[in-house]
Specification:
279 residues, mainly alpha, 2 domains, 4% strand
């Protein structure tokens, strides 16, 4: 029962987290609209020589379209993994277009799989990692002829592709293993956190029930004292002042209440009474 409840709470957390991360990813997509103007500034400054202004406009328009579609999905199916998959796919497709448009991309390729770790879902992470690797392969393949013409250290397109994509593959393996460990540790941490939360919740619920029973007993009996063996104290639950009295267990065998009650116990029953109530 405890395990089922903790698993259910954990799944609810994952769904809520999925919605929140998608909200932030949508904001990130909207923010990427400035990529077009930023590249255009680089063209004007002479930093980018082979990129056209039309490319900058296209990038901004693509980002606006992807952001709008993702926002619609966020409104219609906020808890669905489809919304998450679309956001990650949109970011990857944007990188492919930028790479095809001769915008140099290196470390940015690994941004998308790292962002997927925020979902705390192994399935979403592997989807992002595999898709990113496939699109990285395609982008490297279609841009290889362009970069071979600019460089003198590669004789063939195949040589350039093997060198560059080989480096991407090694980096993907290192990043993938590291990100997977982070994702797995995070998931395990939250599962344990919700398990402990469930245990504490059960203990509080049990305590409330016991307090309710104790209150009922207090109303039934003339004298009810609470013995606390943590701090060795005794307190009358019917008393209005709730005063605590110390109990010395090394010398005291009877509670204060029993010491008062034994006055009314018959002499031939006193030994049995003291034995039965010996703390």
């Amino acid at each position: 029962m405890e395990t089922d409840l903790s698993i259910r709470k954990y799944k609810e957390f994952i769904v809520d987290n999925r919605v929140k991360v998608n909200v932030y990813l949508n904001r990130a997509l909207c923010f990427f609209v400035i990529t077009g103007p930023a590249i255009a500034s680089g063209i004007k400054a002479g930093v980018f020589h082979d990129i056209k202004y039309s490319t900058c406009v296209s990038i901004s328009l693509i980002v606006v379209l992807l952001s709008l579609i993702h926002l619609i999905l966020l409104k219609k199916i906020p808890t669905s993994r489809i919304t998450s998959f679309f956001a990650l796919t949109a970011l990857d497709c944007l990188l492919v277009y930028m790479s095809y448009s001769h915008v140099s991309i290196r470390l940015t390729w690994f941004l998308v799989p790292m962002l997927s770790v925020l979902f705390c879902e192994i399935l979403v992470f592997f989807y992002s990692l595999i898709l990113n690797y496939i699109l990285m392969f395609i982008a490297t393949l279609i841009t290889a002829p362009y970069y071979v013409e600019l460089r003198q250290d590669y004789e063939t397109i195949g040589a350039y592709f093997k060198d560059v994509f080989g480096g991407y593959t090694i980096e993907t393996l290192i990043m993938g293993i590291s990100a997977f460990m982070i994702c797995k540790l995070t998931a395990d941490y939250y599962k344990e956190l919700f398990r402990q939360y469930t245990v504490i919740g059960d203990q509080e619920s049990q305590m409330e029930k016991e307090i309710g029973i104790l209150d009922s007993i207090v109303e039934i009996y003339d004298n009810v004292n609470l013995l606390n063996f943590v701090d060795n104290t005794e307190m009358s639950l019917r008393s209005t002042n709730q005063e605590k009295h110390g109990i010395d267990l090394s010398t005291q065998t009877q509670t204060i209440m029993n010491q008062q009650l034994k006055i009314n116990v018959a002499s031939d029953q006193l030994e049995a009474f003291e034995s039965f109530t010996n703390i």
